[in-house]
Amino acid sequence: MFHFIVSLLFIVVFNDICFGAGWNPSNFSFNPGDNYELVWQDEFENVGPVRAIINGQPAYAPNPKNWVHIVGHNNESLQNFTDSIQNAYVQNGKLKIVAFKEGYTSGMLQSYNLQEFTFGTFAAKIRLPYGQGIVAAWWLLGNGDKYKLWWPTVGEIDILEMVGGNTRTNLTDQYAHATVHWNNQSNTMNPMYNKQLQFTWGTPDGSKLHDNSLVYWVEWTATNIRMGINEFNYFQLNTTSMPDSINPVTAFTGKWPFFMLLDISIGGIWALPPDNTTVWPQEMVVDWVRVYQQKKTIIGK
């Protein structure tokens, strides 16, 4: 999600178009595997008092035990992230992050210092926004604060980024991008260079990602990062031998935990500004967020 440092970028495009005829996301049920167990989840139940009436129904703040707002401008994008209930709220068992044309306001939530995990499978079921200038993201960032280390040295795992629109190759409403960022020159803040590896996936039937609620997931272990959408695994990285880097790269070894972020941004170098085709407001609708970790083996069992 961070793009403000000049980066060395390698991109692979992956499209399961040959499976389009048989793809039915409504039948999909996410299973991380028999060796994993659920350790945390947010099913977006109502917590605390009603904060507003939105579209005729009560709206609640996201659970403060799980999420805090990031406010202000971010990177080179146009949006102004706020803590307004209008930009991020819970309603009818779902989290809604909403971007508005007026003032280009939007919401960004993070689980920093609240819900952080070392290794595991992180998954979220999301219906994405769409349209020119709209960027949706579900991502992880390392918390190396106690080592006085920050981005990109702490590592970043972009489970999902969607760059909306319909005019540029692979940057349309049909494509998701999975990216890993790290410092490929040192495990300190000097020297520092943002190396990134990105894979891109297109819907098998050419539909918009907005058309279905899909599960976007990452499995992070001591040796690998795998990312995918529903049943498709389209990103894999061996973190013990990072490309064009000093090795080992500390970011993904489990030395520090990672926290979760969800947001809609607007415009910027990658997305370009909204135009007269952009529909407002735009929503990211999250059914649930879950974290699974490998089951502990009990000796003698």
Question: What's this, in brief?
Answer:
This protein is mostly beta strands.
Overall description:
Helix content is 0%, strand content 43%. The protein has no helices and 21 strands. The chain has strands at residues 7-15, 36-42, 52-54, 57-59, 68-69, 80-81, 88-91, 94-99, 105-106, 108-110, 116-117, 120-127, 134-142, 156-163, 175-183, 194-202, 214-220, 224-229, 232-238, 258-266, 282-294. The strands form 4 sheets. Strands 1, 5, 10, 11, 13, 14, 15, 16 and 20 form a 9-stranded mixed sheet that branches. Strands 2, 7, 8, 12, 17, 18, 19 and 21 form an 8-stranded antiparallel sheet that branches. A hairpin with a 3-residue loop joins β17 and β18. It is globular. The chain starts with 6 loop residues before the first strand and ends in a 7-residue tail after the last strand.
